[in-house]
Structures are given as C-alpha cells and as structure tokens.
Amino acid sequence: MADDVTLLYLHGVRDFEDTKKWRDVLADSLLRAGYAEPFERVNVVAPRYGYLMIGVDEVVPMPPILQKLPTGAEARDNRRAFERRVGSLEFALGRHERGAGWAGAEVVIGAAVGTPLFRQAQNYLDNDAIRAAVLTRVLKALPDSGRLVVVGHSLGSIIAADLIRRIPSALKIVGLVTLGSPVASGRFNVDDLRSALKDPPSNLGWWVNFWNPLDPVAAHRGASAIFPWMADFKVLSRPDHHVHDAEVYLADESVARAIGFGLFGSLSKEVALRSEGVERPMEAAEVLALLALRYAHLIAGELDGQLRSRYCGALRVVQAGVVADLRRWSEEQGLTVHAAVAALDVDLSIAEQEAIAPEPITLLSKDEAAVPLVVVATENVVRPFDIAVSDKIRQRALGDLTAEMHLGRQYGLDVFDSVETAADALSGGPVLGWLKWGALGAGAAVLVLATGGLALAAGPGLVGAAALTSALATFGPGGMVGGLLTAGALTTVGGGGVALGLASPGVSAQSAQVVISRRLATADLRRRQGLEADHAIWRTLTDTETRVRREFERLDEFSDADSPSLKELKAKITAVERALKFLRAKGLEPDLSSGGHES
Questions:
Q1: Is the whole model's pTM more than 0.90, yes or no?
Q2: Residue 354: helix, strand or coil by DSSP?
Q3: Within-domain flag for 594
Q4: What is the count of structural domains for the chain?
Q5: Which of the 8 DSSP states describes residue 210?
Q6: What is the residue range of 368's domain?
Q7: pLDDT in tens, 273-303
Q8: Which residue of 277, 365, 507, 578 has the fewest C-beta atoms within 10 A of its own C-beta?
Q9: Does a structural domain hold residue 320?
Q10: What CATH number has the domain bearing residue 124?
Q11: Phi/psi at 135 (nearest 5 deg)?
C-alpha cells in the first residue's frame, strides 16, 4: 500500500536537523506501533528551506490557491465526510484533547519568535517574498500525482497549513500530522489562515495535531481551538530541554500510529473477530440488539440526501459500539461471539467501511415478538444520536421488518398503531414519537434498583429472559444495548417491584409514562393480533395508583400548593387513570368477579 505514497516532512527552524536521525526514530516507532511494512519503501520528501528564510535573491510569485473551500450543500457533505475520517483516527488513537492553554502564552511565544533561533519563523510570517520562495521550493519537490501524507513540525506545521490548498488535485492528501505546532497563536496567523481554513479543504483527508504540555511552543494547547474540525492529541515525554524536538514527538507511538495510518492503512482486527463467530441460540441481548440494528438499516434505506448521510454515519458508529458491547458480554459469559454478531463488526478506523445490515431475524413467534418489537419501535435505534425521522418512514420500515420476520406486514403496522394509540391515551393527545416517549433517562437506574435488579427468570414475552439479570449487570441501563434490555425488562417484569419503582420520587412522571405506555402498547398489540392477554399490567397499574395516591396525600398536607413534587405525583396519577381507562375501553380489564387472579 506504501508504493504510491509520499511522506512530505516539513521541518521547523532547525534547517540543520539530522535527516537520518528523525527517519530512524520514526521507523522504530512505526515498528513498535505494529506496522511491519518497511519504512524504506516509502518515498520520503524532506526539502530544506532554512537558507531561504534568511533571505532570497530571486523573487518568485506566490503559488496560487488551487483548492477553494466548498460552499453550500457541498460544504456540508465535505465537512461530514471529513469528520468521519477524523473520527476514524480518534478511534485508533484515543480521546481528542485540545488543552486549555495557559496565561501569558502569547507573550512567551511572541518573545520566542524574536530570538535569533526563531528569526527565520518571523521572516516567513512577515516577508511575502520569503514565504513564496519556501512554498515554491516545497511544491517543486513533490511528485506529480499519487498519495501524500504531510508531517509538519513546529514552523513546518504553519508551512503545511499554508501549503495544503496550493497542492494540485492529482496529489491526494491522505492526511496531515502536525507536531509541536504554534498554529493556535495569533502571532502565527499568516495570511489570515484562521479565516482561510474555517472549514476543511476538499483535498484534505484528515488533520491531527500532537501537542506536549511541557512544550512551550505548543503553549499547553492544541490547534482545534482555532480549527474545530480537526483533532488534537496530547503526548507526554520526560521533562528535559529537548521536549520540542521533532524526534521526541516522532518517538511517541500515538504519533507513529497516525503517520502509519496514513502510509499503510488501519491495523484492523476485523478478520480475527469475524473468524471467532459461531452459531448458537441467541440470547435476549443479541436478539434485541440485532433487531434494533436491522430496523435502523431498514429506516436508512427509506431516507435520501443529507438525512440519509447523517443517519448512516450515526448508524455506523452505533453498530460498532453494539458489536463491541456484545463481544465483551459474550466473553464475560464464557461464550464465543455469535456469528451473526461478528459479521456486523465495523472497524471505525477505516473511514470508508460501511456498516453491514444484520440478516432478518426469523426465530420469534408472534407471541415472543410482541415485547421486542414494541421496545424497538419506541427506542431511538441510533442512540445516542438524535435524528428525527418521519412517522411514515418509521411505520413503513416496521412493516418491512415484520414481513421479513415471517410475521406479516400487518403485524408491524399494528405495532406502530398500538404504540401511537397508547402514547396518545396517556398524554391526552398526539405526541412526538420516541423523541418524547422513547427514553427513560435517569429514571431507568431508579427503576432497575426498585425492581430488585429486574430479576426476570420468569418474565414472559422476552426470548432468553433467564439470562437478563447477568446481561443487565454487564450493560447497565444506559447505552444502546442496555437501554433496549432495560426497556424490554420493564415491559415484562411483574410483581410489586415495578409499581414501587414507578411511584418512587426518583422516577419522573415522564419516565413513568414511558414504561406505562410501552406496557399499554404491548397489551393492545396482543389484542389486535388475537394473542392471549397478559393481565399483569392491570395489577401493576392499580398497585402504582395506590402507592402514588398515598404519597400524594402524605405530602399534600403540608406542602405548598404549587410544589414540584406534588405536580409530579399528580401527573403520575393522571397517567395511571388514563391507562386504566384505556384498558377498560379496549376490553382488557381482567374479570375478577369470580374471585380469580390476573395472570
């Protein structure tokens, strides 16, 4: 992969840098980072231009700007694609960290530029003839075409930022790596780079910057404060007077990983993960997660334009996280990752890799599918991203989902109608889909605690429910998989625990409404599909009503009339009353006249 790639190295003010030394340091770092391909295969261009920054005898024209910043829809597409590529680097390198800077940084950097050592930098910043000569010298050293990885150290990072828009389109800039850059300083805003690079140029693959908190030139900050579309990474080295040297930065493995990523590609573990996959019965966590991902892919297939681009980008990130979570859970359970899960792995370090849709899930009967489908229909299946999709598209995708599950398209339409009908019944009017109803928020943790950790060995309606206790212990109530499991559990759990949880002051009225609406939707779906009624919801609601009214009466005696706590309790009482009314209207009230018990 390195045969057609060129590494352009732009040095700082030290024109006398030992070229062999920094190459040897980088080659060693690449090997330690896991890149076994020989660095000798890479075409390295490292032009020297220090003599030009002292003064020029021949004036040359300033190299023209060849890459204009995109505008309008093209700019949005370019920015989104760029951020996806930078996200790949962040996935491979760790958390972006731009630093906070420190007081007096501008004074220190300004003084440094005035010293004899940095006088070359001042000449580049202030003398257009010198600047044009340096840029021309670099451009003439480049090949006519191919792929280019640019590494700029110190002043070289400023030259790199000044150069990238002047590089011909035949040279694809895979990425830009800057080290110890002073670009965040206003003193280095040559030719108003801050405005000129307000968005990423269309010819730039990605840009990552490395800064050392001990490096006075970096001034304890990265470059993303000025260029928010790129990513900063902090590196640490021993505190000595060589902390700003290029070799100190190049010796860091994270720097080597970034450069290696550009030269050789991703160190992907995708093949190893997929080879581990085996067929075995799916557990509840896997069923819910794959069902949600399948539904998300069906929704994506209905979208177009910018909405589709954003949704697919979010889905890709979500799917990678879901597979990672399920892999970790499988290992904790002593299981080999399921083949259907392994096949969905997304290597986020490969920006071009798209998420693969799961195969249709056909193992659920209509009875078993009721709870999972209500949960999927009411959850945000690209959580934590919020992307509004029309009801018409969500309904159509849900019909496609149940059709391919061999349950019939009408089943999916009934799920959607039951969810909407239940939500409307509780709110007293139309609501705004999952953006309002689909998240429990902080109330999820309180509900899990109040129900004894949702020990659902006997909970009906959720395949593999016996394993839910351990699964929830691993995933918790947050996150994509944990949210699905918690929602499914709270839709099936019986006994007084859930009533106690719903009545708890720690659970908001809205969170209680979410749980109740899903249970109502499931009951109504079973009615529409002619399935046996589950009357446990009635007992849960009546228990909840008793507990909430008791708490309301206790507080009402002394609290202010406009007490927020009383308002929350009143909202819960209203929700329960409307839910019981809904069940009666649908003929779902259990017949206890003969002294029987609801199931």
A1: no
A2: coil
A3: no
A4: 2
A5: E
A6: 273-585
A7: 344 556 778 888 888 899 999 999 999 999 9
A8: 365
A9: yes
A10: 3.40.50
A11: -65, -40
